[in-house]
Amino acid sequence: MNPKYASIDFASLDKRRKMHIIFPVFLVSVIAFLDRVNIAYAGMTMSQQLTWLTPEIFGAGAGMFFLGYFFFEIPGSLIAAKFDACKWIARIMFTWGIVCGLLAFMTSEFQFFLFRFLLGACEASLYPVIYAVLFPRWFLAKERAAAISLMLTSLLIAAIIGAPVAGFLLELNIFGFHGWQCLFLIEAVPALVFTFVFLFWVKDRPDKAMWLTPLEKEYLNETIAAEEKAKENVKKYTIWQSLTDKQVWRLCIIYFTWITGFWGFNFWMPQVLKGLSGWSPALVGVAIIFPMGAALIAQILIGNSSSRTGEKRWHIAGCMFLGAFGLICAPFIHTGILSLVFISLTAIGVYAAMGTWWSVPTTFLSGAAAAGATALINSVANLGGYLGPFMLGVIKQNTGSTDMGYFALGAMLIVSGLVMLTLPKKTAVELGQQEKEQADTGQYGGTIN
User: Fold this and answer.
1) Which residues cross the membrane (predicted)?
2) Which residue segments constitute the domains of the chain, with CATH numbers given?
């Protein structure tokens, strides 16, 4: 690295990137997760007023979100890659906030399906834009797994906060609105308000940031541009090549099977725990804090470990196997407390490797190609987001139990882990960067911890 950057305070630069990039995106992700999974908690009481809401319809409606995601993911990601990523994220937030509020007024199966589809369509491309457009403009490749892992603790923080809040809101009856309606209305407000905060807080490129010095801007622009050029020197992917690349499609298979298990677990877990334990919705909400807290700690450890060692395959595959073990054992547990232990194992398995996972596509893709491929991976995977909840709903409706569904979800996670282990240990770009770092004794720079 150029010695002229030796005067940069990298510890300070890392702290400011956390505050001005990771933290606001973290808040966006918290709000997004609350608004997409509040249906899981609302499902504990909705059927008392909505007589048409059978387990099969609930599973299909919960999963309908991901069909909206599927159709609009790639176009949205390509738009953001060409223009201002932060303005696109703000647009996403505002529209999903409106649709979340509309869920409080649904009165038919058609409206349930429509609003869940629209919620997915509005949120589509949020995470691919973050992973493949915004973060690669701010963080070096070696920092990305830890940075994304830190940001994605948002999913677990949202679950830890959202579960007890949802349990409390479900007990309300305000102005004639039932608890589940209060849940949708109140949780729509943060998305609408934070849209405008985010728009003025976050900049999508270092050049636009007032909180960087000129030398820091030059450092980030130069080093990130050098990494992008290194990828292109190995192979410069067009958008079409990235969408038809064999390795990209292998990543699609890994994430599809992972997400089938992930969302099947998340959407049905509160109801399954309530049925096993007989606890009230409020107590179920509090109990879920424990498995999500365990997964939160594991996610930070996994992300930092992967960034430190450069290893990704076993960090991800090991989590898949642990999640599968938790799901497959779950049907044999018939008490509330013990079920929390296996829910914790499953939560660690399906959550902990997320940050490491989303650093994988950008190890060999960049620019619009990375945005398009990441969107493709997420789109295909989100079909699993439809399949998992719907499959459990059908199985429960026809057998009266989710046991066989949990076996199927566990098998999906095993497939995900096995396919992950077929990926190369390091890409050609990573090997080249590793050789350069070993030869460069004057290396400067910080890491995200």
Assistant:
1) 21-42, 57-81, 88-107, 146-166, 178-202, 248-269, 281-302, 314-333, 339-357, 364-384, 404-423
2) 17-202+221-426 (1.20.1250.20)
The Cβ of residue 408 has, within 10 Å, a number of other Cβ atoms equal to: 19
CB contact set of 184 (below 8 Å; sequence gap of 6+): 38, 42, 100, 101, 103, 104
* Residue whose C-alpha is closest to residue 385's, from 269, 262, 248: 262
Q: Shortest CA distance to 155 belongs to which of 33, 263, 261?
A: 33
**Rg (alpha carbons) of the chain, rounded to whole number:** 22
Half-sphere exposure of 44 (CA within 13 A, CB side): 29
pLDDT, tens digit, 9 for 90 and up, residues 1-34: 568 888 888 899 999 999 999 999 999 999 998 8
Contact, 385 vs 260, CB < 8 A?
A: yes
- The pTM score is 0.75
Distance of CA 415 to the CA centre of its chain: 20
Closest to 358 (Cα-Cα) out of 277, 295, 441, 302: 302
Q: Is residue 315 within 8 Å of residue 423, measured between CB atoms?
A: no
At 234 the pLDDT is: 58
Q: Tell me, what's the pLDDT at 1?
A: 59
Cβ 128 vs Cβ 371: under 8 Å: yes
In terms of DSSP H, where are the helices of 2-54?
Answer: 10-17, 23-42
